[in-house]
Amino acid sequence: MAENEPGLDPLTEDARITSLNERLAQAKTEEAIRKGEGRDKGEASYRLGNRVLAELIGGLVGGAVIGWTLDYFLGTKPWLLLVMLFLGIASAFRNIIRISNQRSK
Question: Where are the membrane-spanning stretches (predicted)?
């Protein structure tokens, strides 16, 4: 019965308010992106894991290749390979520790 009673018509939304809401939403989105809040935490963890894996593999392979090359040219067969391999591993672990300390803010 209340539906049929005469009364005030609902006001239509003002175009200025709609425009203001759109600009406000866009500004919030841009601010979140600028602060880095809009990123997915799972994606950041995935990238960090890939970076750690790349550091470890890069240290191992780099040390082995450099050591093998020096052994080949200097004729000191497994010694420089072993030394450079261990230096590559140590360098990889140092970089991984540095990365993990950097992310623990």
Answer: 52-73, 79-97
